[in-house]
User: Which sequence fits this backbone?
């Protein structure tokens, strides 16, 4: 009888560990190795990540802020040979060094 009690207690303990593992194992936290390897800006604007720059010729090399404003001071249509592209007006006040927040897409 004593041997059966030890077996029953052992099964209860193992079952308890399994139950705890099933309840707490999946908390909706996913390990995403790409998240850490992907370059992201150090600055958040209003709690949001600034959009990445598309691979348009004008975006491939950051020259200065005035160059950015040539296209983005107002909304305008442009064509770089692959069809029309809309350069949207920047939705925030002017900040120095656009490339500190907006990085180039990979």
Assistant:
């Amino acid at each position: 009888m004593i041997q059966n009690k030890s077996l029953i207690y052992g099964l209860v303990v193992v079952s308890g560990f399994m139950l705890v593992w099933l309840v707490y194992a999946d908390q909706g936290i996913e390990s995403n190795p790409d998240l850490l390897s992907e370059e992201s800006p150090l600055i958040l604007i209003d709690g949001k990540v600034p959009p990445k720059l598309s691979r348009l010729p004008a975006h491939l090399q950051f020259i200065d802020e005035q160059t950015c404003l040539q296209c983005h001071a107002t909304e305008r249509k442009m064509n770089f040979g692959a069809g029309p592209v809309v350069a949207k007006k920047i939705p925030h006040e002017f900040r120095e060094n656009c490339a500190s927040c907006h990085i180039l897409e990979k």
